[in-house]
Amino acid sequence: MTPTSPKLCFIHAIAIVLALASSSLHADEPLASWNDTATKQAIVEFVERVTNNDLPDYVAPEDRIATFDNDGTLWGEHPMYTQLAFAIDRVKALAPQHPEWKTKQPFKAVLENDLPALAASGEKGLLELVMVSHAGISTAEFEAIVKDWLETARHPRFKKRYTEMTFQPMLELLAYLRANDFKTFIVSGGGVEFMRPMTQAVYGIPPEQVVGSSIKTQYEVKDGKPMLMRLAEIDFIDDKTGKPVGINKFIGKRPIASFGNSAGDREMLQWTGAGDGARLMMLVFHDDAEREYAYGPADGLPDTKFGTFPQSLMDEANEKGWHVISMKNDWKSIHPADAE
Amino acid sequence: MTPTSPKLCFIHAIAIVLALASSSLHADEPLASWNDTATKQAIVEFVERVTNNDLPDYVAPEDRIATFDNDGTLWGEHPMYTQLAFAIDRVKALAPQHPEWKTKQPFKAVLENDLPALAASGEKGLLELVMVSHAGISTAEFEAIVKDWLETARHPRFKKRYTEMTFQPMLELLAYLRANDFKTFIVSGGGVEFMRPMTQAVYGIPPEQVVGSSIKTQYEVKDGKPMLMRLAEIDFIDDKTGKPVGINKFIGKRPIASFGNSAGDREMLQWTGAGDGARLMMLVFHDDAEREYAYGPADGLPDTKFGTFPQSLMDEANEKGWHVISMKNDWKSIHPADAE
């Protein structure tokens, strides 16, 4: 046969089509960074159940609401919450204007890099840090400061931007759910105005789908220019029992799927699971000290102060059929850079 | 020529295509219930400016945020706010369990249909009514009560459901903006959980795009069943300076277009107008006593207590280039039933 033979052309064409199909299948493969374990299977089966119009558990697209915790679920939270690292850097930057901080806790601990003393200042101390570092400026100024910090700060162990400390399998999960007409929300104990400057670029989640903790703001007109000033006063704590409250307040619908990693997510998963029909509840368990971190205290892992996963949560997960994602066994890669 | 002549067939086909195109043009005609005035022109010109990629005022789809007040802007608010009519009906329904209300204001006024006495109880009295009629039950129970009331209650003058008291031109405006990839939000002083049960069906706006006033809720587990209980405590008042605060809190982006009708919307329009680039701010002015209601006190219309439009707002609108929609002159029809 000559190269111009119609038959050869046809075979050639088929081969090209097959090659294209195979390469596109590979590119589109959902959840590529997940190992083929029961956990991945549970995700795929749930999505098939709620998206197949012929099945009794079918859910209309507008009701496919999925909520994700952020710290420890979508990005890392060790050696400390990213927002605390930001608050510490901010306190250091503001210190020259506050000579009294040299002798006053918790500021003294921050300026002397004394983490045990900082931890000893407790929740009250951390709240004081957040107020000082997050309030007293306009929302526009705060957004600019956060964006600048996210661009310049680096994670102490991995030496990368914090926005690169996201979990590749969870990014794929977000994309997979959205490809199946889910609307994905963040529901985090973190500050909503700390997260919003990066969620669209990093997670594909727009600001209006980010629920978080907040301080109060006040509308003011200065020199004819309207602005919102950030006040040193707590507005809402989106953690623990605050998560169902925040979901109801901001979303107004019960999620059919939710994803967390710590005791702060327990009530969100309870609330999600208490609805009718098919539900998917999952907890990321950080059991991979080599590639990321390992902490509990569930299953005898170290009890750290950030993202506590108590044994009682593990027991409730087992009892209620919540899936526990083992970072070590269920994930092929952890960070986006590893997957490339 | 015979009917089977190719040329005739072609002409036939063209005619059919033209007929279809024309009918579909008519069906798709945006803003059909708006008269061809400068107001309608301002809407169309704004949308063309921000959606044309070749123009300097182009806005990416994800930033096309439009916010709408509800009472008096999307649906009527006379002879009283719909939610107040609901609260009154609810107080009457609860009265048998509260014999003390017969002698206690503002309940006495409600039970005796004594509107002047009710008005005299002021904001404090109205708040007490709302608390009693909206709190002490779960969010699920409240939603069921609202849905039932919206189905059965009728407007005293028009004898229709309150959900039929929407403004047809504004429904078309919502649809027109969404067809141009705007994301439409309600930002109302009304209760968010009073609006959410109907916004999807009535306005095509899902619950998560409804911002409103709220009372606090609390997460409780009763007999193993998680629920959110509604507390008799104000959480957030989404009115006046509260509107930019609510927009920042719930949406996290500044709108490029906003629509209101009263002094409660002034700061929302200021906040919208203070952003860069093309902006559209509009106020519905109720100047049509015949087809709906006429109230101000701007332009010498009666000063009623619901949806006050003061002269100072009219002056600010004129000064800042906010468009005032004259219900009488700009709208061909008012309610959906009139347009059919």
Automatic annotation (TrEMBL), chains A, B:
SUPFAM superfamilies: HAD-like (SSF56784). GO terms for molecular function: hydrolase activity; metal ion binding. Keywords: Hydrolase, Magnesium, Metal-binding, Signal. Residues 1-27 form the signal peptide. It comes from the Bacteria. Pfam families: HAD. InterPro entries: HAD-like_SerB (IPR050582), HAD-like_sf (IPR036412), HAD_sf (IPR023214). This is Haloacid dehalogenase-like hydrolase. It comes from Rosistilla carotiformis.
